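In full, the data.
>
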Amino acid sequence: MHEKTPGPDLICLSHLRWDFVFQRPQHLMTRCARGRRVFYVEEPVYLEGIAPSLCVETRGSVVLAVPHLPAGIDEGQGLKAQRMLVDQLIESHQLTDYVAWYYTPMALGFTNHLEPAAIVYDCMDELSAFQGAPASLKDHEAALMRAASVMFTGGHSLYDSKRSGHSNIHPFPSSVDVNHFGKARRITADPPDQAAVPTPRLGFFGVIDERMDLELLDAVTAARPSWHIVMVGPIVKIDPATLPRRTNIHYLGGKKYDELPSYVAGWDVALLPFARNDATRFISPTKTPEYMAAGKPVVSTSIRDVVRPYGQQGLVRIADDAPTFVAACEAAMEENAGARMTRADAFLRQTSWDEAWSRMWTLVETALADGDTTAATDLAIESTAI
């Protein structure tokens, strides 16, 4: 356990489950918790026949708080219950000096009464473009942007889209734990469920949802029946029946973060087969530098934050239709691996989650030092109009 340093604690309000996929919030909050208490508040779990309660557990040095609400509770009562539970969390842990760090603007509905020392909005995605997004999300986000002391974005495209809406906004593209994924370069044994998959293997890890170009995956596997595509990750918000089903495409389900290097180690090419739609317009895939750290060639569709900088610097091959995607994968399998990894490593030396967190927290400390006490007031005033 790291010794906590003086300064505010942190309450993180997120739409992502801590135990779902280890990504940006987990990377940053884990590092934050090295120096201060971190409370990660998830969206509610709805259960039959219960009274509202807060399930509090620890995940390493992070305190995970999950509201449990009765199934069927109406929206107004649900927000009132969550407000009560957050107040209980603050009181029971004696949180008198804290930063409120938002991943979801929808949390304003039950936190607009709080008085944090500073408000941070880490906008990692254009959530309003995702399937099933609440109709009020854009209004909530506008209120949060007015109130935030400092705002971050998960990539440069999102920064370009949001920069006019905030005076203290900074792009922080997805970073990487090089040591963790670098293990893939030394691993020779396959996990049991991948060992039976023939080679060559082309792989993807991550959430399989509406952002995936299923037609492209189907066309690539049809064009090269001797290639085997490995899809590692949970299937979310789409009907599994819509997934392409061929003998040379393999869905292995979700895996823990610690397991990912063992899977990618056995691939010949790492893939970013994203569709080009509203949900992918502003994404900055965390897995791009992770694949590179694992020592694998990468082929991606033309996602803007992959094209710039990775495609422009020759670190990732870009292709959007099946013939060019197949050709790019073929070229990737034939290239000089040593030269590729030398280029990748030179790029990766410029980035790490440790460095990203250090720079972000410095910006938060600057906001704290500036003494912007209007933020919490603005939050309360603006949120009442939503």
